[in-house]
Design brief:
single chain, alpha/beta, 8-stranded parallel β-barrel, 10 helices, 10 strands, globular
């Protein structure tokens, strides 16, 4: 049998670890209850991430026709087409997107009003020896040059996804300032994929101290990023949530936190999981499109029902199933 002190230590651990987790779980589940109400449907500002096959020659006219039929009648306005990745020095070989002109021209002809943005990204070197180093001015200048190159190629805008990006990274903010100066002068949208917002006080501080890795941004930092772009899409998936009700409540909270600090002249999009992996960070049975849409609507209804520059972003086309598309249409339109 345990002695007095070991028993007391065990009880203390239960109080410190288990009770807060259970309390948070109950709060998230309650956050998923209620009626989103009117005014929480699509505003026609949705987006979808598209794989590299659209610009490397694998996709043809028939594929584009099928895709156009798939999104007809939805709120999708922006296509984030993977045209990278960037080299670790920030440059982008033109050989990465040989069929870009075909795609851009065909979309503009057959899907009026739809914008084709180049999705560019790279692994950052913050958690390992290899990757793009934003602390280097030459690397940041090269990224801006890559964005200019993409706009010269005819893309309507540029969408960046740089990971893992730690909260408070001032070099990223500097890069966004330079990128926005470029895109504003070209009348093109600057869009970014964003990490989730710290759901609990100092949760990221604790995670960083234990693992040295970054998952969440502070709400303050999220707002700093949102003020420097035209569009910000929250990667509200890979949440570690094991149950659908918990995931939906988590998305509702993320939606509310993001709405509170995103300027009204910036598009805020909440990510929908159009993929079905199963690992520690993502449980397909929990992270469903239906739960994400309902959570998004609940957060919108409670926080800023009248927000016009708001939508959802679908990740990703090549992993989507018919049920994902059906849930998006039924829940959001």
């Amino acid at each position: 049998m345990l002695g007095t002190w070991p028993r007391r230590i065990a009880c203390a651990l239960v109080l410190v670890i288990v009770v807060p987790v259970l309390t948070a779980g109950v709060a998230l589940r309650l956050n998923f209850t209620g009626d989103p109400g009117d005014g929480t449907r699509t505003r026609g500002r949705d987006a979808i991430w598209l794989g590299h096959a659209w610009v490397d020659g694998r996709k043809k006219d028939a594929d584009l026709a099928a895709f156009a039929a798939r999104i007809r009648g939805t709120g999708i306005k922006d296509l984030y087409v993977h045209a990278g990745p960037l080299e670790h020095d920030g440059t982008l070989p033109t050989s990465r997107y040989p069929r870009a002109s075909w795609l851009i021209g065909a979309v503009h002809r057959t899907m009026p009003g739809i914008r084709v943005q180049a999705w560019l990204g790279d692994r950052l070197a913050g958690e390992g020896p290899d990757g793009l180093r934003l602390e280097r001015a030459a690397s940041r200048d090269a990224v801006v040059g890559s964005a200019r190159q993409i706009l010269d190629a005819g893309f309507d805008g540029v969408h960046f996804d740089l990971e893992p990006l730690h909260s408070g990274d001032a070099h990223y903010l500097s890069l966004l300032d330079d990128l926005h100066a470029l895109t504003r002068a070209r009348a093109a949208p600057l869009s970014v994929a964003a990490h989730q917002i710290d759901p609990l006080p100092a949760a990221q501080t604790v995670l960083g101290a234990v693992s040295g890795r970054g998952k969440w941004w502070s709400q303050k930092y999220f707002g700093q990023v949102a003020r420097r772009v035209d569009q910000i899409a929250v990667m509200s998936y890979d949440t570690w949530m094991p149950l659908e009700g918990l995931y939906g409540g988590y998305v509702a909270e993320q939606t509310a936190l993001a709405l509170e600090v995103t300027p009204r002249d910036t598009d805020l999009l909440m990510g929908l999981p159009f993929f079905h992996e199963n690992d520690l960070g993502h449980h397909a049975s929990a992270e469903t499109v239906a739960a994400a849409v309902r959570g998004t609507r609940l957060g919108l209804g409670r926080t800023d029902r009248g927000r016009e520059r708001f939508g959802v972003a679908l990740y990703v086309d090549f992993a989507a199933e018919d049920g994902d598309w059906a849930a998006y249409r039924e829940g959001w339109h």
